[in-house]
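Lecture notes, structural biology module. Today: joint structure prediction for complexes of four components.
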Amino acid sequence: MGLIDENTSGVFVISVTPFDEQGAIDWQSLDRVTDFYFEAGADGLTILGMMGEAPKMTQSEALEISRRVIARAGNRPVVVGVSAPGLAALRELSMAAMDMGAAGVMVAPPGSLQTDTQIHGYYGQVVKTLGPDIPVVLQDFPLATKVVISDEVLARIINDFPSIKMLKHEDWPGLQKITKIRQAEAAGQRRISILCGNGGGFLAEEMARGADGAMTGFGYPEMMVQIARLMTAGEKDRAHDLFDAYLPLIRYESQPGLGLAVRKHVLARRGAIASPALRAPGSGLTAAAAAEVDYLISRQERRLKELG
Amino acid sequence: MGLIDENTSGVFVISVTPFDEQGAIDWQSLDRVTDFYFEAGADGLTILGMMGEAPKMTQSEALEISRRVIARAGNRPVVVGVSAPGLAALRELSMAAMDMGAAGVMVAPPGSLQTDTQIHGYYGQVVKTLGPDIPVVLQDFPLATKVVISDEVLARIINDFPSIKMLKHEDWPGLQKITKIRQAEAAGQRRISILCGNGGGFLAEEMARGADGAMTGFGYPEMMVQIARLMTAGEKDRAHDLFDAYLPLIRYESQPGLGLAVRKHVLARRGAIASPALRAPGSGLTAAAAAEVDYLISRQERRLKELG
Amino acid sequence: MGLIDENTSGVFVISVTPFDEQGAIDWQSLDRVTDFYFEAGADGLTILGMMGEAPKMTQSEALEISRRVIARAGNRPVVVGVSAPGLAALRELSMAAMDMGAAGVMVAPPGSLQTDTQIHGYYGQVVKTLGPDIPVVLQDFPLATKVVISDEVLARIINDFPSIKMLKHEDWPGLQKITKIRQAEAAGQRRISILCGNGGGFLAEEMARGADGAMTGFGYPEMMVQIARLMTAGEKDRAHDLFDAYLPLIRYESQPGLGLAVRKHVLARRGAIASPALRAPGSGLTAAAAAEVDYLISRQERRLKELG
Amino acid sequence: MGLIDENTSGVFVISVTPFDEQGAIDWQSLDRVTDFYFEAGADGLTILGMMGEAPKMTQSEALEISRRVIARAGNRPVVVGVSAPGLAALRELSMAAMDMGAAGVMVAPPGSLQTDTQIHGYYGQVVKTLGPDIPVVLQDFPLATKVVISDEVLARIINDFPSIKMLKHEDWPGLQKITKIRQAEAAGQRRISILCGNGGGFLAEEMARGADGAMTGFGYPEMMVQIARLMTAGEKDRAHDLFDAYLPLIRYESQPGLGLAVRKHVLARRGAIASPALRAPGSGLTAAAAAEVDYLISRQERRLKELG
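The predicted structure, tokenised, for the full assembly:
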């Protein structure tokens, strides 16, 4: 399998980790959802992200998930989330995943970082720990990490650490950040791949600003695939038409904390996983929420039919 | 003018404060936007909220804004945001606003509160400071305040402080919180009015869960008014049809920090205020963002026409 | 009265604001404690700081306190804390205080600032708002403000905003920050006065690293005065002997939140203020805590006698 | 080895983890410092705490450290810190450590907890995950964890989860919290052991309020041992005399972040570990800081000699 690089584009779906009702990993469903994502048109997968419930795994479970998904993906790229409280655990998982054939590793900043210098220093430590050859995805997700990465420090990180090949962009608001990076590149800064997150809620605008695609999840990953293709093809109006049809559900799934239960509800409904269960302390949808989601899905299906 | 109470319903628009390009309050535009909101069907207004740029005012400006809007509103209710770093300033503005004819005051929790006991204690202090006769709106907006108010402490506050008549609901996710309150009321808890915020992004679901309406802002306040009416009339499908037409812009306006610039851009475009300027340190839209908004508006107008 | 500048040195005591048991400002005690501080050897005062309960004042109270203390201080310098949620209120108080004869104003960063760029931008806004002629003290107190100011952004602020004349240093740990500033000055950076806070708990080490004195409070302000003089005179061992005698109480007073009640208890015991009351929502010492403080004072008195 | 219970008292030293200059665990030094702590009079040890650099270990390193120290400690109790981002990793280390003969496990709340209900719920999940037979130490350290545990929620946790046998108390201020717990016990609440942290900076007062001893670290652990014994023996004045002699260094070591480098500097100076190195991203003392520490030690030695 190849490695991600600064020109990687398309849609990398953030994969869920399926569990059974007792909280054990459901390996059959893991295979099935891996296939499901690729059948929906995914260019790659990212496993063990926040929405993959990564912090709830033991290290040995994380390794086994990596092994299984990378094997199943065949020659298609799989990025492995390796964020950990310390560099030793981060290194251990990264080295193992790359040995298994991962396309790169994703690192979010720990919540203890408070200044530009600390953020820059942390990614310096990560790159020194991993060596120059492992492609790193920087996950920029302040709503979840509490770490705000300014345009300035991001430029310094890009400049100083060439093995950081990709930005998983989920700052919010974040459109201007994309524009600033592309402007800096026009002025000579090293290119970086930008794949966008936040459930695809701004995907059309993000691509118009210069993003290369999406790295995020949604119960209907084909939405991201189609919008990325339409925007790449210059079909902005059609991209927005399609986006608008999915938006009520995107909005509902974007609720922090609750969103993963929504996503797993949809995936289970669609047969991609056997159970919508989250591992504790996560919990599923209330009946009222499930009914709201199902209502939105019925409207979405009708609207998609209207669009043809 | 009457006071808000536990049965208040409908749409209270969170009013912007218009400035000229130098950052001075534009009093003519303040009158105009006040009229604009009522012409759009608002049942009341809330001034000096976060999106009214309240923390940027001097106390004397806050008093003058209150006087002007309350007078302009005539016999329609105006709630005044009085959140302040200390109780003395909060009291001073509250007393003056009520003397001018305000319908109630709105209080968000200061960011220093960290435990249930502290949150409960703070609202106890507020109520003791204001006396039993001033109706208080509790603003529950964790994304902005960093204070998370659990169902349990909210129930204790409702139980202990009868002058808290209304919840400005903008927890996110927050639908289950509404359900819990209404369930508690069914079991005997004192009723409280619930008007929802967050730009109306979940208004239809919120009303289905038992909310009494909206207290929030949006460049097209008639959206809130129509959805509240349709939901009250039991026209759920039509409410969602209309909501979906506005949703792409609601989403765009919901970007933290940036949202107010979007809202003022729209209001200025519509002639409700003379200038989209924010008072420093706020800033306006980039050309790229303004173009994105204008594109969304053109699509919105087309979609609304299709809906008839 | 003169203005503070980049060479200001000595001890500026952070003044308490005395209240009566009902929470009203005790103007007689305010005069008395002003005199008390100067009799203890203070070179200046800083009023309306956090430990002066500034956020609990109305703007008119803040103005009246400023007027009274500045008048009482005669030709000795008084710095006025002007931190506020917005620039308009900050400007209003600053202008009035300078007109009354203040020696400068002190500004802490609002808790909403998250990146180096935002921190730098905020002080740029403050300086633009106040104009180039008002000397500004930058209060660097992350434990209270939650804003961490790195060495790098502090250097940029010093470089870009010449009217920032002084650092109220209370980062913790903070000794290396002083060393870095003095090293930068040796390499050509503009000089800035550094007065240290945190109740004097590291005053001897801070002055050895290059600080110019203290700007903080303590029930025995003569401690700061004597240590500053001894360190200036090169009497390090004697400074530490004296410091160690006061340290048990310094430690006890350093407890966040509780510390001000300790300080007012001591000041009331010493007759500098009539009542130890804090304005609500602050509260006084429990009987157990008061007994602990009194025990420490009796030991301190004995130890000071031993030292001669 | 026996288990800790609600009557455990004395001093459990928070053990450092020694590294060589390359960041590898120094197993010989781990044995040596284990012996050193017991020779200083420790009643037990706590390993893999924050100051044991626990988050920097891989899971296999954590297991090997546990095995080594528990074996070395013989029949003396060793508590193992098992805080982890998720319950699965927490369970894995807990079960292994208890199998090796640990006396209990210590769990700090994750920084994501924001309400009383969430805090209570988290410890409920922990206890459910570990089963009823593993004694749990609740680490209450808001300065580091950002989670504030109110008296009220602590009482609910004590009441609902009997396997939580001990509070590692390091709230600050925290004296009143001890008093409240002991008062609640007098009124019938289940007893809990309280061992205090924060480097021993309030140990005498804490024991006077009802604490059972200390669970913390310091370069001179014999200080904690002696003060705990003197306070237990009712020798309050002598306890304070001794405490005051150590206080200048306690204060210096209490600097967040820097404190561990100070502690390792002292332990290396005393021969308890070979190198003062911290594992990355930690770093050692500057020359200036090392000189300050050495100066304080020389004064401390003189003062202890004076006390006899």
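Point to remember: The CA atoms of residues 171 and 285 of chain C lie 27 Å apart.
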